[in-house]
Each structure stands twice: as C-alpha cells, then as structure tokens.
Amino acid sequence: MLKTGLFIISAFIIGSIPFGVIVARIKGVDLRRVGSGNIGATNVLRALGMGPAVFTLLGDILKGTAVIAIGRYLSAGPVYEGVMGISAIIGHNFSIFLGLRGGKGVATSIGVLLLYSPMVATITIVLWLAVILITRYSSLAALVSFGLLPINIYLFDCTRERLIVGGVITALLILRHAANIKRLVKGIEPRIGKRA
After folding, report:
1. Interatomic CA distance for residues 182 and 196, integer angstroms
2. How far apart are the first and last CA of the chain?
3. 58, 78, 88, 136: which is deepest, by most CB within 10 A?
4. DSSP state of 105
5. How confident is the model at residue 194, as a pLDDT?
6. What are the tens digits of pLDDT across the range 9-32?
7. 192, 137 contact by CB (below 8 A)
8. In this predicted model, what pLDDT tens digit does every residue of 151-185 receive, in sequence order?
9. CA torsion 163→56→14→62, rounded to 10°?
10. What pLDDT score was predicted for residue 76?
C-alpha cells in the first residue's frame, strides 16, 4: 500500500508541472494574467503564438504518457495505471506549484489515453481535431471528444477498469469546463486564433 501511495503521489507531482507557465515565464509573460488565465496550450497560443503553444501541448501530453509508462514499467496493473493517470490529470488541474490552481486537463488526459487505451486515444484525438476544424472552439472540441470517451471505451476497448477510468476523466474535464459551457451557451466563448 505504501508503494502504491508513492506511485499515486508521484503521478500527482508529475502532473503538477506547469509547462505553459514555464514557457511563458521564459518569454517574460505571466500566463495567468493574460487571455483566459488558463495554463494550457490554447491560452499560450493566444498569448505567445504557435511555437510556445506546441511546446506546451507536447509537455502536457508527455506528463500523462510518462505516468502510465512508469506504472507499466513497475507492473502496477491496469487499475493502478488508471489511478495514476487520474492523479496526473488532477495534478495538472490543481498544481502544487501554482497554489492548487491549474489547467483543464485536456492534453494530459490525451497523454494518459495514448498508453492506457491507444485506440480510444486515437478516436478522441480525431474527434477533437474535427470539432476544432469545424468550429474553432477548443473548449467545445474537448467537451465533445471527451464527452464521448466512455462510449468509445465501451465500443472499442471495454473493460470495467477502463470504463471507470474513462468516466472519471470525462467528469473531471466537464467540471473544469463549467465556465466555458456557460460562455458557449451565451455565444461569447473565444475561438482559437483570437489573440489575447
């Protein structure tokens, strides 16, 4: 149990690494004071442009992938791999390096899925990109692609453990997008490409 607890805590710490804030600080910008104030790649894109946004996106994805890879290397098993992945997402959302503030967990969730359920990760990414291309709303793309996550797990990679983990990931993402949902309903949500 002690070892398992250490794995989960380590996953939370890895997830807490705020790549967006680090990238912005290198550029002399406090990311939490520009645009939406979010620490993810979308706000980095608005504030700093494509290059820093891509670096942030890759860093946030890598956090989720690394945690699952570590769990797999240590033979944690699918249940604890999933718990570690969720812990990394929560770490991103409530970073210990930012006073328990953070992002919305989209990229880190994708990183978790890339190893935890590769086929479902691919479907989720395709859906996300499709909604982005059609609407240019990052938040809507996340809500649609991850809203369908439990269904896609059920259809293409179904185990009880994966269904539970997928459901928790979906719930976390929807909760973190509550303000975006309100703005989408009001028609005031900013689209991708709008400068901060």
Report:
1. 20
2. 46
3. 88
4. -
5. 65
6. 999 999 999 999 999 999 999 998
7. yes
8. 999 999 999 999 999 999 999 999 999 999 999 99
9. 60
10. 80
Q: Are 195 and 41 in contact (CB under 8 A)?
A: no
- DSSP3 helix / strand / coil % (the chain, rounded to 5): 75, 0, 20
Joined tokens for residue 78: 């699918």
For residue 98, give both structure tokens: 């930012």
- Residue 56 CB-density burial (10 A; 0-12 exposed, 13-18 middle, 19+ buried): buried
How far is CA 26 from each of CA 18, 96, 103, rounded to the nearest angstrom?
Answer: 13, 20, 19
Residue range 34-48, pLDDT digits in tens: 877 889 998 999 889
- pTM flag (> 0.90): yes
Beta bridge partners of 95: 101
Side chain identity at 26, as an amino acid letter? I
Which DSSP category does 190 fall into?
P
Q: How far is CA 183 from the centre of its chain?
A: 20
- Quick count: other Cβ atoms within 10 Å of Cβ 3? 10
Q: Reply yes or no on whether the pLDDT at 137 is more than 70.
A: yes
